[in-house]
Design goal:
Rossmann fold; Saccharopine dehydrogenase; 7-stranded mixed sheet; single chain; alpha/beta; globular; Dihydrodipicolinate Reductase, domain 2; 7-stranded parallel sheet; about 25% strand; Sacchrp_dh_NADP-bd; 2 domains; NAD(P)-bd_dom_sf
Length: about 375
């Protein structure tokens, strides 16, 4: 029977995923750099998981661990820098691949990799809140409006509740890398390069008007594969408040030599975070909010879906563990690079969100 191999198991997000996997029936292998940390974690989980030491600077340690139709789940970022090792290992061994990336340049690279396209296993990146939940919200809006009527979708991502300094260190590192990398969007049927923050807009979130800025995402690639009449996809990230227009200009710096070092030095101030991540009590005081609005060819709103859920890390862990278990059971559709709707089906993905505590607080057709 297929196993789940969790790479980065002792990191903050990896630990949350491991807790969910240990409660299931699928054999799980915790993989990472430190044998001591892995052993301690396996003990914490009641000895229900095996462990394996893997070093990304020695890719053979990962390929020798994997077997065909295993499920490799990786949380190791930044994905732009380190993600290629896990992808290559999955291609070589025939293992299914899932990750928790929110890094759009890495997602695009994976979808455009000929070796991934030819792979016999499935590759499903971004199985967390970003961007599985936005894929779901958009698909529900498109289906509600009628897929042949929808020309454009806007998607917004927000954190709610007590969000100050509730981002993990890994999230902050990834965010800084994304801001300094070329983004992209889908415009008039074409995937176009566009810097992060090229456009801003406001949304109503829990009764308050909240600003947001554009960024690259999986939806710009995945949704048109499921809905070929969809020509434009814009994805926005909120949560920076009055800093939104400032941060939206950061990506302009990428052409300046040495700018990346400056952004890295300032990221802790612009995007508050910490090493590790928030504890259970802190996570319970924050939540997630995703919005998708479907438009007609003449710009009329056809449908709007709002999905409200638990803390971003808990939701990401629930969705990623669910996807890994489904893949291990053989309940995954297709091979090569896939979005979450194509990989698991709309209704199954919706049910997984419901089980994770996500509720549709507004579901309307105009």
């Amino acid at each position: 029977m297929a196993r789940i191999v969790l790479l980065g198991a002792t990191g903050f997000t990896g630990r949350l995923i491991a807790q969910r996997l240990a409660a299931g029936s699928t054999e799980t292998v915790l993989a990472g750099r430190s044998a001591r940390a892995l052993a301690a974690m396996a003990d914490e989980l009641g000895g229900r998981c095996k462990t394996a030491t893997v070093r990304l600077d020695d890719p053979a340690t990962l390929t020798e661990l994997l077997e065909p139709m295993d499920v490799l789940v990786t949380t190791v970022g930044s994905f732009i820098e380190h993600g290629g090792v896990a992808v290559s290992a999955a291609i070589e061994t025939g293992a299914h691949y899932l990750d928790t990336t929110g890094e759009a340049p890495f997602i695009r690279r994976l979808f455009e990799d000929p070796a991934v396209a030819a792979a016999r296993a499935a590759f499903v990146p971004a199985m967390g809140f970003n961007y599985a939940t936005g894929n779901l919200a958009a698909a529900l809006a498109i289906e509600g409006a009628g897929a042949d009527e929808v020309d454009c979708v806007d998607i917004g991502y927000f954190l709610t509740g007590e969000t100050q300094r509730q981002l993990s260190g890994g999230t902050v590192d990834s965010a800084a890398g994304v801001l300094m990398s070329p983004g992209f969007t889908r415009r008039n049927g074409e995937l176009r390069v566009e810097r992060c923050g090229a456009r801003t807009r406001s949304w109503v979130v829990e009764g308050r008007r909240v600003s947001s800025m554009t960024l690259g995402s999986s939806e710009a690639i995945t949704l048109s594969r499921s809905y070929p009449d969809l020509r434009t996809v814009d994805v926005y990230q909120g949560g920076l408040g009055a800093l939104t227009p400032v941060v939206a200009q950061v990506s302009r710096l990428c052409a300046i030599p040495g700018a990346a070092r400056i952004v890295n030095a300032l990221k802790g101030f612009v995007v508050p975070g910490r090493r590790g991540g928030p504890d259970p009590e802190a996570r319970a005081r924050s939540g997630t909010h995703a919005i998708a609005v479907a438009y007609s060819r003449v710009g009329h709103i056809l449908a709007e879906v709002v999905l409200r859920g638990p803390n971003v890390y808990d939701l990401t862990a629930e969705l990623t563990a669910w996807g890994a278990q489904r893949a291990a059971e053989g309940s995954i559709e297709g091979s090569g690079p896939l979005g979450p709707v194509a990989a698991f089906g709309l209704r199954a993905l919706e049910a997984a969100h419901t089980a994770a505590g996500v509720r549709a607080v507004e579901l309307s057709n105009r």
